[in-house]
Amino acid sequence: MTEFSIPGVTESPSRRIRDLLQTQLSTYNDLHLTLKHVHWNVVGPNFIGVHQMIDPQVELVRAFADEVAERIAALGAAPQGTPGAILKDRTWDDYSIGRDTAQAHLAALDLVYTGVIVDIRRAIDELGELDVVSQDVLIGHAAELEKFQWFIRAHLETADGQLIDHGAEPGRAAERAKHGQPPRGWSI
Q1: Could you list the mean pLDDT of each consecutive 10-residue stretch along the chain, which spans 188 residues?
Q2: Following DSSP, what letter does each residue of 104-136 receive, concatenated?
C-alpha cells in the first residue's frame, strides 16, 4: 500500500472508502462473469433477444470495475481483481443455473441484480459521509444497474404488472422449468 491518499481524505476514512470500493470491484467482476455465463448458456424461443441484451451489460459492468479499480488506486491502495478477491469479498451464493431457458435465467438475474443494487445503495449511503466523489461514481453505476434490472424485469412482467417468479430463491425458476412446471405467475 502506498503512503498517500487523495488530498483532503485522511487515512482512516480512506481505508474504509477503499474497503467499500474493493467490495464493489469484486461484485462487478463476479457480475460480468455471471452475465457472460448467461449469454453463453441461454436457450429457447427468446434466446437471441436475451443473448444480445446481455453483452452491452457485460461491457458496461466491466467498465464499472475498471473505474472503481482506478479509484481504489487513486486512494493509495492496490485494487484486487483476482478470483481469490471475488471469493473473499463474496457474501452471495454462486450463480447456480447452467444451460437453461431465457425465462429461467432472467428470473435468476432479477435476483442477482436485486442483491447488487441493494449492496450498492448501502455503499452509496455510507460513502455520503466519507467521500462524495466515490459516492458519485457509484450513483452513476447504480442508475445503469437499475436500468439493466428494468430490462430483465420487462421480460418477466405479466400484463397485470406482476413479476414471474418474483421473490423466488436463485435457481427456483430453472427448477420449475426442469420439472415441466410453468413459472410462478403463469397458467397454462
Answers
A1: 69 89 98 97 94 96 99 96 95 91 95 96 97 98 98 92 67 46 40
A2: HHHHHHHHHHHHHHHHHHHHHHHHHHH-HHHHH
Residue 187 is placed in which grid cell?
Answer: 397458467
Nearest to 36 by CA among 53, 48, 54, 49: 54
Give the domains, in start order, of the chain with CATH numbers: 22-178 (1.20.1260.10)
In Å, what is the CA distance from 143 to each residue of 17, 121, 127, 136, 183? 20, 10, 16, 11, 28
CA 41 to CA 180: how far, in whole Å? Answer: 19
How far apart are alpha carbons 46 and 4 in whole angstroms? 51
CB 1 within 8 A of CB 77: yes
Residues 6+ apart with CB under 8 A from 185: 158, 162, 163, 164, 165, 166
Global confidence as pTM: 0.85
Count of beta carbons in the 10 Å neighbourhood of residue 179? 7
CA distances from 102 to 99, 151, 177 (A): 10, 13, 11
Q: Quick one: angle between helices 47-74 and 102-130, nearest 10? A: 20
Whose CA is closest to 28, among 85, 77, 97, 106? 85
Using CA atoms, how far residue 76 sits from 4, 6, 20, 49, 69, in Å, is 5, 8, 14, 42, 11
